[in-house]
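User: Second chain of the day. Same drill as before.
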Amino acid sequence: MIEHLLRSGPVADEPRNAWTDPENAPYRLGTGDWDGWRRTGIPIEDILAEARRWADHFRGVQLPWLCWNVDSDWSLVQQRQVMEVGWTPIVGFDPRVGPPPLIPGAILIDFNERLRLPTMWLHFPLEFLFLYVEERMAYWHADCLIRPEKMRRFARDFAALRDGEMSAVAPREKLLARLKPNTLRYWEVLGCSTVGASRSQFEHGCGWWLNMAQHPRSPEAERHIRGRMHWECGVGTRYWKRRYGGVVHAIPEKEIAEGHFTLIGRKDYKRASPVHFKRDLSKELSLNNDLTDACRKLGLTHLLTGDVCQTVSCSTS
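Assistant: Same format as last time:
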């Protein structure tokens, strides 16, 4: 599919920078960016067809939980957390990093096998969830760990979602942010979506990806309104709730803050990659966070060790 990537370049008379350079469009698409998609020229039908192929991996999997690998040690702890609460770890990965070792029962999926994008973030497959899962899929950031008692509660809540509903993290909103509703969004740090919610979001052109205004299903009558909204990911899911009455069970940020090992709010954070679509979390997660300390803090030290098998033999699909 790589032959499509440079079919269309920057918009005419548009100044070239990192965001408009056609060579960067595949990176932007890989992060989940509708404006990046527009610039690659890849037909949306090709991407939808690819997402449908992923369904083969999910047949018979009732409670899949997507774990996105950027660091093998962190991924193994996440896989064990998911398995411990009765869900099936679905392991995707950034192509710059490759697949991690798997625990028995985990399922490895190369979401980028045919697309061959230079990078891929968690956001990419989330947008098309309705095309490949049977009922629902939970997901979380590669830099997120959760106390066992909370993890059990989230697992129960996610399993209880009705079709058409979803759960997502609602970040803290200061007064200034609430006065600017066009900037409000949900976070995909932790959440779960059902097939019905995902399909509704895609049909209304407002899901997880960045630059919602460029969504191919964005209604023409709403283009102007959407064009004035913040470009960030999660703005679309918040808009879906407000504009179309979508049901979102919000997880307060404070519920996951202690286990979200993010750069946000950290003055001591050491950067080792660009701050935009070429960011490489694999170079920063362990650089800024000690996994053993993180597990000790959250009562997860028992998950630092356990059975591991080769990626090929661990996949049950």
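The chain has one domain: 60-314.

User: Great, on to the next one.
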